[in-house]
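INFO batch 0412 | record 1 of 1 | parsing
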Amino acid sequence: MLRLFQMALRDLGRNRRRSFFSALALGMGLALLMLIAAFITGEYRGAMDTSIKLHSGHLQVRVKTYDESKSSLAWEDLIEDPAATAAQIASLQQVKVATPRLFATGIVSKEEQSVGVRIIGIDPPSEANAPFRDGLVNGTFLSADDREGVLIGQALADKTGLQANDQIDLLVNTSNGDVDDQLFTIRGIYTTHTPGYDESTILMPLAKAQAITRTENHASTVFVLLKNIDDTDPVVAALQGSQYQVKTYLQLNEILTQTEQFSKSYMVMIYLIVLAVTATVIVNTLIMSVFERTREIGILSAIGMKASRIMAMFFAESAVLAAGGILMGLVLGGLLVAYTSTYGFYLGNLGVTGILIGERIYSYLTVSDAVNLTIIAFVISLLAALYPALLAARMEPVEALRGGKGA
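INFO prediction complete | emitting tokens
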């Protein structure tokens, strides 16, 4: 076996330029696939992390009849005395924070401009509001007893030209089906670096949100963050006996998980296509090698080398090319992933419905993706040697010695 690889290195060394570029083609294909895999995984991880922090939490506790798509404000669809329910949930050891939130829809008006928004009533001191507090770019944060203040997103401020301390007219749907109209002062402007969310979300203190929507002492949900995401199932089991339904982050982000599963299935085809194209280069390299070494192959056959041994010789050459290409691909792909995991891909306001995608996606390459792509690249490279190896093994010694074309 060692002898075969020594011969493979010698044969590939006869045309170093061609061998190098063949390996480089495979390496570039592998690097590209590593970057694509890292982008897909990074996009999913980033979107899920953003959704957990801003939208779904790790868990949400709701009344069983609550319809999120309609932001229902009917009292029978809301949690009564949500502060007490949140306190009970927060007493569980695995829970980091549990806080009530109220969701409503409304319209922001400023002079001749009007924009539809989602209003979220929050408990300002809660740790769950860290993304908004840390993302404050102008003004001040809300206080629990503020009756006239709201926070708006940077994207909404840019769109409407609003600034901190400006007044806006806010029309809000109420629990009895009416619309309440009131002037509010913009206390501050926040950014979560998720333009689609920031452009459509207004925050106000929970007590004020309950008052303006006529839902006193009620909330849409109890938003729950856990200390460890792996504790999701145990906490769900602990809460199952309650009168409320418990939704996990996977259930609340079903569109995202389905999109990620579809993307991974679709990307397998992309992987095979890219590697098949790069493997074509290896096929061409080995076929040219066969015709350049026709007499040499004839001599080897004449002195008794078996066809299987000749085939093994070309498989060894393919393995060496694959090893060199994979090594270059891992280095090049690693550098690309390292760069994009640090600086990311800037997307701006992508605006994908049902998915919270930040303005910048950071790649993330898993060990399993790197190993799987490496194995696939190596196997396809070996398969690429099958036709040239058969071509060489089927040469008739007499024809080969004359430099002719084997049958």
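INFO post-check: Residues 2-52+256-401 form one domain.
INFO record closed
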